[in-house]
Amino acid sequence: MTEVQTRGRTLFNGWRLAGWGALAALLCLPAVAMQLTGEVDWTASDFVFAAVLLTALGTGVEIALRVGRSARHKVAIALAALGAFLTVWINMAVGIIGSEDEPTNLAFLAMVGMAIVASLLVSFRPERMRWIMAALAAGQFAVGIAAATWTMPGHAVEWGALGFFATIWGASAACFHSAHLPAAM
User: What residues form the membrane-spanning segments (predicted)?
Assistant: First the structure.
């Protein structure tokens, strides 16, 4: 028997290996692209950052699978992990509002950081998590309004990008809300 058992669950199973393997393959894509074209020019620190970010995403999915009490709860946690991953990745690559160097974008990173801390404090309980995710959805537009009126007046705010992220956080909130409701009898 080649599988290692931990607390009644297998440590190495096909789906888990496929998921982590897919993340490793994503990390290898820029290295392959660098061999094929001069337009991709990653440094060692780029690969380290991408590895940390992809590991965080994989860990978020692992948490969803281990902590989730129902399918809806698992989906809600996985959506939250995806939203956090995309927020950090896009924000660091090109910025959500303006360029990646725009200080207003730090608000999005701060919101994700606070949500991670809050999620750990409430142990991913759906009745609390729905409010954390709803606050993140509303926060997207709050930062956009603040940018348009105070921090970056005259700058075009990418409302579509803010709506995209608000949709991810809102979908996670809806899944947490659904997971919190009593099961139909």
Answer: 43-65, 77-98, 104-124, 131-153, 159-179
